[in-house]
Design goal:
Elements lengths: L1 H29 L4 H29 L1 H18 L6 H29 L5 H29 L2 H19 L21 H13 L2 H16 L6 H21 L5 H24 L6 H32 L6 H66 L9
Helix pairs in contact: 1-5, 1-6, 2-3, 2-4, 2-12, 3-4, 3-6, 4-12, 5-9, 5-11, 7-12, 8-9, 8-12, 9-11, 10-11, 10-12
Length: 399
């Protein structure tokens, strides 16, 4: 079952890799949008997606995660196909909002499906294997996207992406169906779970490290360092291959909430160090010195990223009620949508506008969020223990 989950992820990740490389140019050169219009559309889309993911995750709990995941994979394919025909800003907004909504829901449904099919002690390890597979697929897709950039075959990339989600839906349909959770009053309980909300917020803050590599670092290299511009692609390759090689090994350390919170804390430290090294690249010490510093900063960043992912998976799975995994994963996964929504504007302002001081500010934010995760997890454990104790006759649960 885990192999089918990984194969489905690999398939649509190949399509996504091409999308990531070509989408910006397709939106501007083919659809005819301005960069500002693309930015507004994407911000709106991921804002909607962050909310929709919770509702669609709840739907996965209510109607079954496999059925929901298959339908959302099909819907994502349709949304991607819509990009092939829109030629106006309103049409683009409609397509990208549907794309972000279905992608957010699909993530929640897949997480709920994994939680239902895999033993609790194996979930983080299997999730890490899926992530490793996903990164390999993205690398393959990005290479194909690079060929499309050279030939101008932008439409082919979107066709491949749409087909990849159709194949993923077919693979997901081969998994066993999971019994739907019974209907209960106050179904969206995650919205009232304050400790889990705090944990999700801290996770969203730490996920701001993702736009650093994809957006801020390339601009920083060109504007503030003497390193060759092609270093941006080298850092992306380093990141992708590191996840493929090391994510599963690091995930083995996430055994229980305490160790998972420790991994998140260590991630915050590594992200601070990474930001400090990136700040040093602005020193006029030659192009190759800058290049070496960029590689060192990217290595610290990706190991922080992998520690964050491993710890966050363990925390998010363990603290989610067994019959509400979909909505809890939808809420937790909203952090990625929020990072995509606010990250580019925030990081461009702070880092590119603030220079070395801006890097330090962002690094300290990462450090603070990483250290705050431990107390937040302890609060959630106490709350869960108290709630369980209230349902148990005469038993006092101690943490």
């Amino acid at each position: 079952m885990s192999r089918l989950l990984a194969l489905a992820q690999l398939t649509n990740s190949i399509g996504d890799g091409g999308y990531y490389v070509c989408s910006a140019l397709y939106f501007t050169l083919v659809i005819g949008l301005s960069p500002a219009q693309v930015g507004v559309g994407l911000t709106l889309a991921w804002g909607v997606g962050s909310v929709a993911g919770v509702a669609l995750g709840h739907a996965a709990d209510r109607f079954g995660p496999r059925r929901t995941a298959v339908l959302l994979a099909l819907a994502t394919s349709a949304a991607i196909a819509l990009f092939l025909v829109v030629r106006s800003f309103p049409g683009f907004v409609l397509a990208v909002v549907l794309y972000a909504t279905f992608q957010s829901g699909l993530l929640a449904a897949r997480q709920a499906l994994l939680a239902a099919l895999v033993a609790p002690e194996e979930r983080t390890r299997i999730r890490a294997r899926i992530q490793s597979t996903s990164n390999a697929g993205i690398a393959i897709g990005a290479a194909l996207g690079g060929l499309a950039l050279q030939t101008g075959a932008y439409h082919a990339v979107f066709v491949v992406d749409a087909v990849s989600f159709l194949i993923a839906a077919a693979i997901l349909s081969r998994l066993p169906e999971v019994a739907a959770a019974p209907r209960t009053k106050g179904s969206l309980t995650v919205l009232k779970d304050r400790p889990y909300a705090l944990i999700s917020l801290l996770h969203a803050i730490l996920l701001l490290n993702l736009p650093l590599l994809s957006l801020i670092i390339p601009l920083w290299i060109v504007r503030n360092t003497q390193a060759p511009a092609w270093m941006a692609s080298s850092l992306l390759v380093l990141n992708t291959m590191s996840v493929v090689l090391f994510q599963v090994r690091i995930a083995r350390r996430a055994t229980g909430l305490g160790k998972a919170a420790g991994l998140v804390r260590h991630a915050g430290v590594l992200m601070l160090l990474s930001c400090g090294v990136f700040a040093l690249t602005a020193i006029n010490a030659g192009r190759w010195t800058a290049a070496v510093l960029l590689l060192a900063g990217a290595a610290l960043q990706v190991f922080g990223e992998m520690m964050l992912a491993s710890g966050a998976w363990e925390i998010s799975f363990t603290l989610a009620p067994a019959d509400k995994v979909g909505q809890y994963q939808g809420f937790f996964g909203a952090g990625l949508a929020v990072a995509r929504m606010v990250g580019p504007v925030l990081l461009t302002t702070v880092v590119l506008g603030g220079g070395a001081l801006g890097w330090l500010v962002i690094g300290l934010v990462f450090l603070g969020a990483g250290y705050a995760m431990g107390p937040a997890v302890r609060w959630a454990r106490v709350k869960n223990s108290t709630s369980s104790g209230a349902m148990t006759s005469g038993l006092t649960m101690c943490v």
